[in-house]
Amino acid sequence: MQILASVRTSFYIISICYSRKERVRGMRKLFLLWVVVVTGMVLGTEANEYLEFNVTELDRIEELEYGFSRYSSNFNPLMVGLTLIRGAGAKGAVCLDGTLPGYHLHRGHGSGANSWLIQLEGGGWCDNIRNCVYRKKSRRGSSNYMEKQIQFTGILSDKAQENPDFFNWNRVKLRYCDGGSFSGDSQNKAARLQFRGERIWRAAMDDLKSKGMRYAKQALLSGCSAGGLAVILRCDEFRNLFPGSTRIKCLSDAGLFLDTPDVSGGHTIRKLYNGVVQLQGVRNNLPHMCTNHLNPTSCFFPQNLISQMKTPLFIVNAAYDIWQIQSSIAPLSADPHGYWHECRLNHGRCNAAQLRFLQGFRNQMLRTVTGFSKSRKNGLFINSCFAHCQTERQDTWFADDSPVIHKKAVAIAVGDWYFDRAEVKLIDCPYPCDRSCHNLVFR
Fold first, then answer.
1. Cα 137 from Cα 130, distance rounded (Å)
2. Which one, out of 178, 192, 266, 276, has a CA that is 20 to 30 A from the CA of 349?
């Protein structure tokens, strides 16, 4: 499957396998996902299948993880309604199809009443007219298709036992409907496409400030995948929204997309990013500290940004990021003979040469964060798992069997860093040493 698939109905049989306590949880029922019919999806090794229109590899992973994020330890997760930003249209801040953008807000209380957490939704990118036209007929391109309510779990949970440091904050999930990591500003009149991600970002921040965020004593900007990339791109801007006395930090989960060759020696992800940057008019909304000396496409890659950021940043990333393996390193377009087919779906089926290639990818990731990690203000949690997005899923954020590095779960690591309880630079040993991973396996 190419990174951005052509329109077709696709069936996937998927299984999630955890490296420990696989069957402890047993079978649990999932809620319906966006235009997805889910049957037989369980924790463990049972087979699953679901139907989705115009899916991409990122869709497969993020829809799956979004579904499992719906688990709450007491089976009573918080449901939060969608708020459309009514003043956004006048500012030209609209989704791909021209509809209003939106967010989900759950108010804080007690000691968290003046603290804010903004979570930027992920969901891939569209890099050409055809793909963006398809996308605008989905929740990732139109608020007409967005869920009216979503569950808040993981870093968005309102339960102290699930989210010890942020449970009583004002918590916001900003929906993603522009396809350009909240960074574009252009349009295509012929195709009736609006690329207004940067305007959506500004309109959302203005609206939230009017609802009390302007009085925040502390705030955290976070996001997963394409939202994690957006965090890196918008982090210093977020800092500038508040007085200097306000504690502001940023968290990027699964947003460290590397500018790396695929298995054929090509540059699949660079081609994708170049299409996004050119089509959506991203150039003028990229950090000038980067575009002053590098081309715009290079400045869409986090590796060219993170060491120059002024605002404290925490990076959570799987060393063997499953999206990057499937869609950047070994996409079908780079593997026409299927040599990587089994490996890309199940790391347990990788041969020795393929594992060496993946270890090389991990090594590149570690080299990328070397300078970044030298700054005391920054934090790291890079575990040797085959995963993608670990902060909104309850089982990977904070649970009895969550992934850990040096006995520290993601939630505790992030909290220790945010509140300056400890310097956090956690890097796992290479695969297969970590037995706490919640690895994703597709079959």
1. 12
2. 266
